[in-house]
Amino acid sequence: MEFSLNSEQKLLEDNVRKFAQREVAPLAATIDREARFPVENFKKMGEMGLLGITVPQAWGGAGGTYLDMMIATEELAAACTSTAVAFAANATLFNDNVVHNGSETIKRKYLPGTSAGDLIGGIAMTEPDTGSDVVSMRTSARREGDYYVLNGTKILITNGPIGDVFIVYAKTDPLQGSNGISAFVVEATFPGFRRGKTFAKLGWRGSPTGELVFEDCLVPAENLLGSLNRGIVVLMSGLNSERVVMGALSVGLARGAYEAALRYAQERHQFGQPLVAFQLIQEKLVTIAMHLEMARLLVYKGAVLMDGGHRGRQANLVASYAKLFASEMCMAATTEAVQILGGYGFTQDYPVERMMRDAKIHTIGGGTSEIQKMIIMRALLEGPQLD
Length: 387
Ligand SMILES: Cc1cc2nc3c(=O)[nH]c(=O)nc-3n(C[C@H](O)[C@H](O)[C@H](O)COP(=O)(O)OP(=O)(O)OC[C@H]3O[C@@H](n4cnc5c(N)ncnc54)[C@H](O)[C@@H]3O)c2cc1C
Prior knowledge:
Blueprint: H1 7-24, H2 28-34, H3 39-47, H4 66-79, H5 81-101, H6 104-116, E1 121-124, E2 140-144, E3 147-158, E4 165-171, E5 181-187, E6 193-198, E7 209-220, E8 224-225, H7 231-267, E9 269-270, E10 273-274, H8 279-307, H9 313-345, H10 352-359, H11 369-382
Helix pairs in contact: 1-4, 4-5, 4-7, 4-8, 5-6, 5-7, 7-8, 7-9, 7-10, 8-9, 9-10, 9-11
This protein binds flavin-adenine dinucleotide (FAD).
Pathway: Amino-acid degradation; L-valine degradation
InterPro entries: Acyl-CoA_DH_CS, Acyl-CoA_Oxase/DH_mid-dom, Acyl-CoA_Oxase/DH_mid-dom_sf, AcylCo_DH-like_C, AcylCo_DH/oxidase_C, AcylCoA_DH/ox_N, AcylCoA_DH/ox_N_sf, AcylCoA_DH/oxidase_NM_dom_sf
Protein name: Acyl-CoA dehydrogenase
């Protein structure tokens, strides 16, 4: 067991940290205030090879590992969570999923564009009436000649208002429950695709979230992702990787808040001493730092499992541990960071106010904390499983 990053991973960490601190962090407050997609950061991440970080070079990617993805995600999220989400939605939710489940045709068609930052990707599972109970989705797809015809509505979709290409889950055999779901790659230009409302949000304000409507939407049959009626495999393995990357987003965001709070506690004086001299403030900083380290270890463990090819049942437990622990830690850490900054912490003069707002969605998106507890309990009852 080796706990330190190798020289290539350290180099990646260093490069992304420099980019994040020099170019991404200075834009974070503006992106949040204007609620706009960080298009300039997105383009640069494409040029740097980050968006296709786990995509093999044959399809325009950098050929890296899932652990590389976690390292990059943490650095970006520490600077600007909305930019990190733009990265993760493209690199993990779309690209990594297509790498593992796509046909050669799909990979060749989409991955070069989504890796370069010329196309923006996303995934669409959630519907107006089905969120946590995703398997009860109502969007349908029926085969007609060389096409599948999709009907239904997806909501709360990251990149929905601006994305070019989405992995969309639909029922192809509605009577078969989870065994009647299929996944499709749907372009925003396909006939019958329409964007609905854009949601105004508490946090992640630079990551646009929207509704997608499919009205007899024509999807070429070759855009089926994975096997017909086996979309649940694509969905569940995708959720496992999403949960690990949500863990990394949480670690990065919490680290950003910790660093801001530590800096402030060293500079701000009360009662003739810096705040950091007070033991009650020290206790907060120690707790955040220790929980950060614990969350990062879980995220890395999840990523190493993914890199070892375990994306199914064995990954469930660790992915849910990582997601649950890191997201709850992030909410607590950002809240404590605001507390350490006192009144200034509540204002937009300092970044911790934005960070605390950004943190809340981490305990909800990609499966809520309650759902993670259900998954963990089920896995504990089933016992360890290798897949
Ligand atoms: C900013 C943002 C971005 C998102 N991006 C995407 C995206 O890109 N793609 C996508 O498909 N979706 C996306 N989502 C949707 C997100 O994944 C869902 O909101 C989430 O899975 C929860 O579903 P829900 O909102 O329908 O809540 P519900 O399922 O209605 O749950 C409501 C509450 O009930 C609890 N609950 C539900 N079932 C149980 C149970 N059995 N036991 C105990 N408690 C339970 C939940 O934990 C929660 O607290 C996004 C959401 C947001 C806010």
